[in-house]
Amino acid sequence: MSAPAISASHLARSFGTTHALVDVSLDVEAGTVCALLGRNGAGKTTTVRILTTLLRANAGHARVAGFDVTEQAPQVRTRIGVTGQTATMDELLTGAENLETIGRFCHLGAANSRRRAAALLEQFDLTAAARQLVKNYSGGMRRRLDLAASLIHDPEVLFLDEPTTGLDPVSRAEMWTSIRTLVAGGTTVLLTTQYLDEADRLADTIVVVDRGLVVAEGTPEQLKASIGRAFIRVTLPEADPATLEKVRRLLGEEAEVSGRSVSAPAPHGLTTLEEVVGQLREQGVTVHEVGLEHPSLDEVFSTVTDHSGHPNVPATSTAGKA
Questions:
Q1: pTM of the model
Q2: 111: buried, middle or exposed (CB in 10 Å: 19+, 13-18, 0-12)?
Q3: Which contacts of 109-117 are long-range, i.e. CB under 8 A and separated by 24 or more positions?
């Protein structure tokens, strides 16, 4: 197997008496998206700053694109792109001028900078606005231009720190499409976000940090499965008591009735669903809807970052690994 594009082991970082990171380890395979989740102050941004060579860890080590972030920082910087939480373009320059300037800073030369800027403006649907001042761009256009700027030197690894914060639903969807396109082309993405639906839709793996510790990690499906079983819900056309009771008995002793629906655990997932659909058909029960439902990522996040007592750490957690 090839080495991970991002690998961090037991990172720790303190600011005075404040422990921003206590023990953070993660691996991100090349050509995938990893979402780093956590409440405000959990350690997400500190982790990203260490991985992008902007901050040194007090303990632990990390490698990005095969290079040590402390000992080989210059090599790391030439292979990564970073998009922060806020747009950073010069508002008094045009979109094309911003990208061409950044290209020159990356030592691409004038001609290559122009070619690369033109290609990125087209890729992010900004060609028509290329000669407009950035101060006249919408929020979505600015974020796309920011993303284009981080790609001017064709990085292997891209760090996106809450890239869709403040965007409207259409602009968010456009940004998601851009990220999927980049990953399909082989780029590795580490994404921090407070939008759990964004992580659920984009991420191949998710790492949840809380108070400087990794408290859960895995695929979205693994994390959702870790806090509860899938269940089946049968919804009738109307709340007929006799039919509801018939369906309740069919689904077993753990079945519960609510309104015109009956729900029960589905221990074997789709196999259970197929069996129930067959039984409903055999018994002549007319249904409005029947489906398989799973715990949401919101439930996972609330469970593993619960501060009401001791942190809840599910079986997928790596917080206690040496």
A1: 0.77
A2: exposed
A3: 113/152, 116/152, 116/154, 117/152
Full DSSP string of 183-245: HHTT-EEEEE-S-HHHHHHH-SEEEEEETTEEEEEE-HHHHHHHT---EEEEE-SS--HHHHH
Average pLDDT for residues 220-234, to the nearest whole number? Answer: 85
| The CA-based dihedral angle spanning residues 90, 96, 101, 103, taken in that order and rounded to the nearest 10 degrees | 130
CA separation (Å) from 53 to 17, 112, 138, 146, 199? 22, 26, 31, 20, 24
State how far the alpha carbon of 151 is from the alpha carbons of 98, 119, 141, 185, 314, in Å. 13, 11, 15, 12, 37
Q: How far is CA 274 from CA 233, 269, 279, 287, 290, in A?
A: 13, 9, 9, 14, 10
Mean pLDDT over residues 242-263, rounded? 93
CB 25 within 8 A of CB 16: no
In this prediction, residues 63-77 reach a mean pLDDT of: 96
Six token digits for residue 245 = 């009771």
